[in-house]
């Protein structure tokens, strides 16, 4: 595991020292994934959802080159509101630190930093993955290779439906990343409840997810992530017809405007938010809040197992 120079927020430091449950949260969804001014309000709501379920939120990001686990409200506000916040994947962390940048961490960077800080559970919206056209563009999110080597449980609503979901699942298999559905054997597609692919495994409760984490420790699994795929209920998903139309126009705009690289995901998310007149934003927020709640419950169950005298 990488040794990052990390500043811990006070509350997070206390919780980790005492073995209390902590949930890592990413900042890219705040700075690049959600539109202003909703993003700051939602960032605070995500933290509150973690607290309501009994865990301590640790939102991760970089402020003036300092890598922080557990941003305080002023730091969170800065990443949500100032211009020029960089989107930081793992490879960017050192460069951004050395140049004193403000940056928001992706799933990849958040996972790596959280694991290094000793946090075992992380909540996000949707993972990055293999992009459509990846056979030509080679565009595959660093989220995948990072999860192959990082011991963390990521609660997400599958991968964003803007991706090639089947190819992403194949890559996760190759990379040895465990995938379990939460109360489902169908892989969710972020805005959509069901992305159209079966899963081999599911867990039925936060306690069972904690059992999986405990079994990994017992088996000496010190690298490799666990994806807990938590779908939206069908009646809360984005209307599939609206979704498909919006995706088609978004992909056409990508090609027309020549958008590539790390700009692709923020571009498509922003297109969804404007083209659906806020419908996708409401769905996106629901996804993240539900995942924060589930991640906190898993962290609570996991902490209880670690502190309980063994039977
Ligand atoms: N999930 C969301 N909104 C987002 C992202 C995920 O609901 O903005 C971000 C995450 O930070 C993820 C990143 O790691 O998109 C993937 O970007 P890329 O495809 O460039 O790797
Ligand atoms: Mn990419």
UniProtKB/TrEMBL annotation:
SUPFAM superfamilies according to UniProt: Indigoidine synthase A-like
Cofactor entry: Mn(2+)
GO molecular function, one term: metal ion binding
Cofactor binding mode and count: Binds 1 Mn(2+) ion per subunit.
Recorded catalytic activity of this chain's protein: D-ribose 5-phosphate + uracil = psi-UMP + H2O
Pfam families cross-referenced by the UniProt entry: Indigoidine_A (PF04227)
Keywords: Glycosidase, Hydrolase, Lyase, Manganese, Metal-binding
Any Gene Ontology biological process: nucleobase catabolic process
A GO CC annotation given for this chain: cytoplasm
Subunit structure: Homotrimer.
UniProt family annotation: Belongs to the pseudouridine-5'-phosphate glycosidase family.
Function of the molecule: Catalyzes the reversible cleavage of pseudouridine 5'-phosphate (PsiMP) to ribose 5-phosphate and uracil. Functions biologically in the cleavage direction, as part of a pseudouridine degradation pathway.
Record-given protein name: Pseudouridine-5'-phosphate glycosidase
Organism from which the protein derives: Micromonospora chersina
